[in-house]
Amino acid sequence: MRILDEKFAEHNGQPVTAYTLINDQGMEVTAIDYGCIITKILVPDREGRMENVVLGFDTLEDYYQHSPYFGAVVGRHAGRIANAEFTLDGNTYQLEKNNNGNHLHGGLQGFDKVIWDTEVKEETDSIRIEFTYLARDGEEGYPGNLHMKVVYELNNQNEFKISYEGVSDKKTVVNVTNHTYFNLSGDLKEDILHHTLMLKSSRFLELDEELIPTGELLSVDSTPFDFRSGRKIKDGKESAHPQNILAGNGYDHPFLLDEQQNKEIHLFDEESGRSLVIETSEPAVVLYTSNQLEAGFSIRGTASREYLGICLETQGLPDSLNHPQFPSAILDKDEVYTSQTVYKFSSK
């Protein structure tokens, strides 16, 4: 196992470094210290061909101009917050409005748009990058100096683990996720409409016209939102369900997981034979099928278009600060925030 590093670009006069984790099976994960962005993941198909299974760019300029959070860590609070504000202990905090008057994925300069400090570590059975960042009190409107650590770890079982840890000197809110767009066809040969997804989830959140949770948890029974036995992503595109139509003919919905850390998310592409099993400590996953991915730019030679990638964002529920019945994103002073998600790749 080994780790490579090379200069990727410069951001505001600071170097941006790309780190590549390579295991003994030949699997590779490349990430840059700007936004902890995962730029590539190379895994084999059933014939052993190593191909990239995530959406990303080769230049920082492309991330500036075109990226809808490709591969990035987003926070301090992932997802939308209605009216870009919340109240905590009687104090109202006004956040950056970066999504139709609402707050999305940490704001204008969230975790995805800063350079993180890094340290690489090589163990006998794994290799990892440790990213650290201090989000200062008032940054993007959030209270508290929040010390964040994100660890990317790869082992020889083709398991890629993301661990998060945070501590604040003031009561605050934290809900962090990774926003990678997966496409198991390899090198974007096909879109993701024929991928099969299994989710151990019996309830999902109803969204309003601005894609913000209404507070209602809906049953997946007898709907295109029932992935418990597996279904094709195209079912959402072709669905007449009002929630599929509202999301742009597909999915952009939080699902409450029935189980944690027990193969609760499984994505499979029949053509390539690639399989991705995701296990998480988080209570929910946001399923986004890139229904609103804009055209007009190129992703490593492939024209951008709808349904080119699928996001499986393991996290707490969006807008939980305005819905007390949701799992809480509040972090007390000196309390330790922790979260872990494991991505297991295989082929058959």
Automatic annotation (TrEMBL):
CDD domains: galactose_mutarotase_like. The keyword Isomerase applies. Pathway: Carbohydrate metabolism; hexose metabolism. GO terms for biological process: galactose catabolic process via UDP-galactose, Leloir pathway; glucose metabolic process. The active site is at H179 (proton donor), E313 (proton acceptor). Its EC number is 5.1.3.3. Keywords: Carbohydrate metabolism, Isomerase. Gene3D superfamilies: 2.70.98.10. One of its GO terms (cellular component) is cytoplasm. Beta-D-galactose binds at H179, T180, Y181, D252. It comes from the Bacteria. InterPro entries: Ald1_epimerase_CS, Aldose_1-epimerase, Aldose_1/G6P_1-epimerase, Gal_mutarotase_sf_dom, Galactose_mutarotase-like, GH-type_carb-bd. It catalyses: alpha-D-glucose = beta-D-glucose. Transmembrane segments: none annotated. GO terms for molecular function: aldose 1-epimerase activity; carbohydrate binding. Belongs to the aldose epimerase family. This is Aldose 1-epimerase. It comes from Peribacillus deserti.
